[in-house]
Amino acid sequence: MVSNGTTNGLDPLGGKPGGPIDRDSELYVPASPAEGAVLRQAASLSLGLAILQALAGFATGSVALVALAVDSLRDGAAAGVAVILRSGSRGVYRAAASLVAIIAAVMFLWVVAAPLTGLGGARLPNPWVMVGVALVSLCINVFVAFRLRRIAAAGDERRWVFRQARWDFVADLGVVIAALAVSDFAARWPDRLAGILIALFSLWGVAKLLRSLWRAES
Questions:
Q1: Phi then psi dihedrals of residue 8, to 5 deg
Q2: Contact (Cβ atoms closer than 8 angstroms) between residue 42 and residue 147
Q3: How many domains does the chain have?
Q4: Do 141 and 53 contact (CB within 8 A), yes or no?
Q5: Domain Cation efflux protein transmembrane: where (predicted)?
Q6: What domain range is 209 assigned to?
Q7: What rounded mean pLDDT belongs to the chain?
Q8: Three-state secondary structure readout of 31-79
Q9: DSSP secondary-structure letter at 115?
Q10: How far apart are CA 98 and CA 207, in angstroms?
Q11: How far apart are CA 99 and CA 85, in angstroms?
């Protein structure tokens, strides 16, 4: 995991471009019915989790939960694209995956600008709702990452789905810490800070994903 110090250790793509790609070959996603089942399960769980996080985030005014929701939505969409585009050119897959990443990047930028957009307003988010949702998210993300290990060593684009999802639990733990800080300080800045950090880290991952996807063209 750690190949270049702490920075690469936190790299959601592992610092790897995804390997050489034959432009004329068909997309190998999924390579087997078992891998297809894993991707469908990951897509369903991530999208369901995104709905829960978004509802709780907007209801309580938590920027951190909204950031988690965008991240889960991106993971679910990425897995869904891998399921839907199970045949056809790799170029079509890369275009669809890039579109998902760009849309997610715009949403993460909106989270970063939360203080300017009025997300959450002036009210204090409920820290115990934050903790509860983050713990549910933690359990689901650990399970999804464990299931996606099946495709972690895939020789094509499928591996990128795993690399995007495997560190989501770190963000969940960050939200738990932020919620405890909100409770201790009776202030909303820890929630906003956690949401912005999650969004910035995810934007970094999106940038590396886009670079890896299209580096295969050269």
A1: -70, -25
A2: yes
A3: 1
A4: no
A5: 42-212
A6: 24-215
A7: 78
A8: CCHHHHHHHHHHHHHHHHHHHHHHHHHHHHCCHHHHHHHHHHHHHHHHH
A9: H
A10: 10
A11: 14
